[in-house]
């Protein structure tokens, strides 16, 4: 295997997922700190989206509500990666692209609103070629 080839290839979904594991947090929990860094999101914003106090992210990162929010976000990001094949595009879409069918809310906002299943159904219809 050529080490230069692996550094030039775009990151995969698996690379993204495993980059969220922190040795200081017991597996299979994902790190809120690493998640916020990956999405270029400050911890206060992440706490707001997960509907927890900011200190919870640092003091109790394995709290069910924190982990649920991260898992739901990762599901949507995985679906976006499946559609685009490009992790940078998937992350950009997740954070920034207002979706007309959802009142121009982003996928990130929809996950925070508890509408993960709605956005995943929408994405499945896009993948199937449905017209809306």
Structure commentary:
The chain is an all-alpha fold and 132 residues long. The protein has one domain (11-128). It is 63% helix and 0% strand. The protein has nine helices and no strands. The chain is globular and about 45 Å long. The protein starts with a helix and ends with a helix. The relative contact order is 0.12.
Number of helices: 9
**Number of separate strands:** 0
Taken together, the total number of domains comes to 1
Structural class: mainly alpha
Helix content: 55-70%
Task: Note the topology.
Layout: H1 3-8, H2 13-18, H3 32-38, H4 43-50, H5 54-59, H6 64-84, H7 87-96, H8 107-112, H9 116-128
């Amino acid at each position: 295997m050529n080490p230069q080839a692996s550094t030039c290839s775009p990151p995969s979904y698996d690379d993204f997922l495993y980059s969220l594991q922190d040795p200081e947090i017991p597996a299979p929990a994902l790190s809120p700190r690493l998640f916020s860094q990956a999405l270029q999101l400050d911890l206060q914003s992440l706490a707001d989206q997960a509907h927890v106090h900011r200190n919870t992210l640092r003091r109790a990162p394995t709290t069910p509500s924190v982990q649920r929010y991260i898992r739901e976000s990762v599901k949507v990001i995985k679906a976006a990666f499946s559609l685009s094949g490009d992790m940078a595009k998937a992350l950009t879409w997740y954070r920034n692209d207002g979706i007309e069918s959802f009142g121009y809310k982003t996928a990130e906002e929809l996950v925070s609103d508890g509408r993960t299943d709605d956005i995943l159904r929408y994405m499945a219809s896009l993948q199937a070629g449905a017209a809306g």
